[in-house]
Amino acid sequence: MEELWPPPAPEAAEAIRAVCQRLLPDAEALADALSASARRVQYDPAVLSDASLGEEDRDLNHSDLVQWLTSNIQHPGRRVEPYIGPRITAYIGDLVARGIAPDFAEGWRAALGIGWRRWLEECSAHCADRDLLVDVLDVSAKALMQYALDSVATLREVSLVAAMGNADAEAIALIQMIASGAPMAEDFAEERLRYRMARWHVGLVLWVDDPDRQGALDEAIVALRSTEAGRSTLVARASTTSRWVWLSGADTPDLHPAEKIVTTADEVRVAVGRPGRGLDGFRSSHQDALSAQALIVRLGSDRRFTAYADVELIDALTKDRASARRFVLKTLGPLAEADSALRQALLTYVQCGFNTTRAAANLYAHRNTIERRVSRANELSVVKVENNPTHVAAALLVLELAPEIMTICPS
């Protein structure tokens, strides 16, 4: 690429290299902060609810950040060429396929507001000499701003190429419109999608964490379709790593086949919405499934099958990992880090309607053992189960979904 400014002096170059080396180990956390800021201004609310796109967006920001830092370690203060790898290209293609046109310039503007402040702090801490600090900030400001301009131009070019090569954009855009709440006649939607709307629907989101495992998604969907004789199935390729699926029928679709498939599929995970009827049910069940997926992703859970009806309260109480941790600690206290057998006994006891005999049968344990564990768990818990069983059960469910949540740093 053409160089647009003179190279920095050796002292400034070494300072830039040192600051980049110090920031590189924190790239993931910094990329999360940049992504959160950028997504709020470059996407509409419907996109923000899609956890799979959120993960891909974070990867894009992480890739941008690592590219700039590593390039400045190798060639401090020089112009950095944007890197658009296969995963980013696929992500842009997913956005185009769903009719999403992000404002890359606004996203970069928001991210620069956070990134430049962090850069100032690190440079000020490293450069004791005022003149050296001025030189470092002068050249790094040019390099960072040019990188933003080059990145926006490159992303727009990739988006244009993706749009020209996308033959299914119209159908996917229609699904996106329905899912986001746009008014639409049922007969129009049925005709365009070749899928009956005047029936019961269950929305599912199938996804994998590794883009290289996307083939497993399609295998799982083939298996799911084979179990749904007499029902209609609609599948949309939401992103490289996720698929949106709707099952419909004259009565509420049975979810047991889906649960069985995901337990045997390689690395595939499923979130399921509550059943609904007609176009509104099609939409609401899908939104439920997206919310369940977002909950699993933000809590860092490894659960493979999640029904939104089972976690709706958890979703309302835990909009981020830090608040989830605070809720658990405030509710359970020492029980949160006690023997997991105590927590499991107490949760099962509540779920069984405070029936010790049923809880013992479900846990394949002696009734006296369950009584002792429940009693000990209740002693350790800050909130007693007899005072607020709903909060106690919710906190226990959070730990069941994401036991490692206790290891995150409180905010």
How would you sum up this structure, described in words?
With 411 residues, the chain is α+β, with helices and mostly antiparallel strands. The protein folds into three domains: 10-164, no CATH class; 197-314, Reverse transcriptase/Diguanylate cyclase domain (Alpha-Beta Plaits); 318-407. The protein has helices at 10-23, 27-42, 45-48, 51-74, 86-97, 104-126, 130-164, 169-179, 186-193, 214-226, 256-264, 278-299, 308-317, 321-332, 340-351, 356-363, 367-380, 389-401; strands at 200-207, 232-239, 242-249, 269-272, 276-277, 305-307. A hairpin with a 2-residue loop joins strand 2 (232-239) and strand 3. The chain is flat, with a radius of gyration of 25 Å.
Give the helix/strand class: alpha+beta
Question: Which overall shape is indicated by the principal axes computed on the Cα atoms?
Answer: flat
In angstroms, what is the radius of gyration? Answer: 25 Å
Low-confidence stretches: none
Write down the domain tally: 3
Distance between the termini: 42 Å
Q: How many strand elements?
A: 6
Beta-strand residue percentage:
5-15%
Oligomer: single chain
- The averaged pLDDT comes out at 84
Helix content: 55-70%
Largest sheet: 6 strands, mixed
Provide the succession of SSEs: HHHHHHHHHEHEEHEEHEHHHHHH
| H/I helix tally | 18
Protein name: PucR family transcriptional regulator
Pfam family, one: GGDEF_2
Domain CdaR GGDEF-like: 191-294
Domain PucR C-terminal helix-turn-helix: 342-395
